[in-house]
């Protein structure tokens, strides 16, 4: 999988370089041109990212250097599976100075959440929290971005054990200017595997892992603990699959077979020649004897090319409001956001950013006509987002011809906007009894710019089927059907995959196009596994204490014997 000019040198675990100190040295101090009454929030743009942050310029510069290098290496490791169209917009990422900022998204969140990737028709956004321990925080960000990268740039949707395993494999990667270290055991993954080897009860075996069971079972920390165990076992399995040239080639065969709908366990056994029943013992030995950390020489690792922009104080409080609106909230949350945004924007009638955020809220959750006075004036200066909002407002007011004109102008300025292309597709459906080529192409363009957004995949699959391109329709539907983390759309895709294979009429496809599916967003949270691990150890200790008390009560002369330190004890 690696280019042959990369020389890898095995290092012992204790010899891994102090990367945190080196990455601080590679990121020079960044100064942003001052702005009177500046907000604590600022905007930074690099080759693949647009970051909004309320941390520090230097912290974000360091982060972007690392993320650009991670993106570079992920493209090499996944080159056999890359499906990049080149039309993907830059990822918008919000980097907060504390987890409390996630509350501003008005979304229900799980316990110990410190990050989120949200994808829906409005696009894709990432959210991450700066932790006091910088290296731990970087691991969480790497984990989340790797998972997102697979969704965005490849067709890999299963097995989720590979997605989670690769995410944790790269979580511990670190970069200097010319070198990457990779293969180190992530802290909480190692802690959990060590915990199991102390003879503790386990929740999953490798058959569970391959069959994508990441939540069913009994664990010391309930579902969160099961997910941590799934991640730990998935990391070890993926580490093995990436350990040699032979295992990497077998990995390509394995993932390709899964994509062809070969059952996952069967695909693994055929690719690797290992019975799943023997996998646990084999990987236990592999971890004890063969785990290596590699220093990979990469002479052309990129640096982030950054443009910093300070935001005025009157704009800062609208940063997370806009993010929340673009996360496709439900009606109750959306209407609450409209009320909150309208109240705040009333204090800044001359602030263009505040009024634009308010306009989006009015169009999505209020009366679109309320947004027209500001947007009409703002459109005198070419601006893709203003024109998109005017197009969306016109569409909501049942003025498809006006909507089409605005949206075409918006796409001319920003041809890679998935939400603008999707709005143009919706406009075309409302403009005529049957969709023309431009309408069908708009659906396809939206999907090419938002490859991980299943709402866009749905419309593209139907557009392909309507045009008679059944091969692309099947591939797009298969992509959705394989994504078990969006079960409703996966079930829909599986049904329509059968219809396309059997031969479905244009009339039936058109009828499905006109059905408006419920607005959905795919949300993948990043959890602070250090806290989960603490819960696991605490509850295990309490269980031990209860056991000792019970044992002493039954037979005070016979102390409890220690559990044997075997790799498995269920």
TrEMBL record:
Transmembrane segments: none annotated. SUPFAM superfamilies: TPR-like. Gene3D superfamilies: Tetratricopeptide repeat domain. Residues 548-570 are annotated as: Disordered. Keywords: Signal, TPR repeat. Residues 1-21 form the signal peptide. TPR repeats lie at residues 384-417. It comes from the Bacteria. This is Tetratricopeptide repeat protein.
């Amino acid at each position: 999988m690696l280019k042959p000019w990369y020389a890898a040198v095995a290092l012992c675990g204790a010899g891994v370089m102090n990367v945190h100190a080196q990455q601080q040295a590679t990121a020079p101090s960044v100064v942003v041109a001052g702005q009177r009454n500046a907000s604590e929030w600022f905007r930074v743009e690099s080759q693949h990212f647009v970051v909004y942050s309320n941390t520090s310029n230097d912290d974000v510069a360091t982060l972007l250097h690392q993320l650009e290098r991670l993106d570079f290496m992920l493209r090499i490791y996944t080159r056999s599976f890359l499906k990049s169209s080149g039309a993907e917009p830059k990822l918008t990422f919000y980097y907060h100075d504390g987890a409390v900022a996630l509350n501003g998204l008005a979304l229900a969140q799980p316990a110990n959440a410190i990050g989120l990737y949200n994808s829906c028709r409005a696009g894709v956004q990432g959210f991450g929290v700066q932790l006091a321990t910088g290296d731990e925080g970087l691991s969480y960000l790497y984990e989340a971005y790797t998972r997102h990268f697979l969704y965005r740039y490849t067709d890999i949707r299963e097995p989720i054990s590979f997605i989670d395993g690769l995410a944790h494999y790269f979580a511990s990667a670190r970069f200097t200017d010319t070198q990457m270290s990779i293969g180190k055991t992530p802290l909480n993954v190692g802690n959990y595997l060590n915990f199991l080897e102390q003879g503790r009860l386990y929740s999953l075996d490798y058959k569970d892992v391959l069959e994508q069971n990441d939540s069913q079972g009994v664990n010391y920390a309930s579902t969160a603990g099961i997910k941590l165990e799934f991640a730990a076992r998935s990391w070890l399995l993926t580490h093995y699959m990436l350990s040699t040239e032979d295992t990497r080639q077998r990995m390509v065969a394995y993932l390709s077979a899964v994509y062809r709908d070969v059952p996952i366990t069967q695909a693994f056994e055929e690719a690797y020649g290992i019975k799943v029943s023997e996998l646990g013992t084999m990987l236990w030995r592999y971890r004890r004897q063969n785990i290596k950390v590699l220093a990979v020489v990469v002479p052309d690792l990129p640096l982030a090319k950054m443009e910093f922009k300070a935001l005025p104080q009157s704009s800062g409080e609208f940063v997370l409001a806009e993010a929340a609106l673009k996360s496709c909230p439900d009606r109750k949350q959306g209407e609450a956001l409209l009320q909150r945004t309208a109240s705040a924007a009333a204090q800044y009638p001359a602030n263009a950013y505040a009024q634009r955020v308010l306009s989006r809220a009015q169009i999505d959750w209020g009366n679109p006509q309320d947004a027209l006075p500001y947007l009409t004036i703002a459109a005198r200066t070419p601006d893709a987002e203003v024109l998109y909002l005017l197009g969306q407002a016109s569409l909501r007011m049942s003025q498809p011809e006006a909507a089409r004109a605005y949206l075409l102008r918006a796409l001319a300025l920003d041809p890679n906007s998935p939400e603008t292309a999707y709005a143009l597709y919706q406009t075309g459906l409302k403009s005529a009894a049957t969709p023309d080529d431009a309408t069908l192409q708009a659906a396809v363009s939206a999907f090419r710019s938002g490859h991980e957004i299943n709402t866009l995949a749905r419309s593209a699959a139907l557009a392909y089927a309507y045009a008679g391109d059944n091969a692309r329709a099947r591939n797009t539907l298969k992509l959705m059907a394989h994504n078990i983390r969006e079960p409703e759309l996966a079930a829909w895709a599986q049904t329509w995959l059968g219809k396309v294979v059997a031969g479905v009429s244009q009339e039936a496809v058109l009828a499905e196009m006109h059905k408006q599916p419920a607005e959905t967003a795919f949300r993948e949270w990043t959890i602070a596994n250090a806290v989960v691990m603490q819960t696991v150890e605490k509850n295990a200790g309490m269980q031990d204490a209860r056991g000792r008390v019970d044992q002493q009560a039954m037979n005070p002369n016979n102390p409890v014997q220690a559990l044997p330190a075997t790799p498995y004890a269920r």
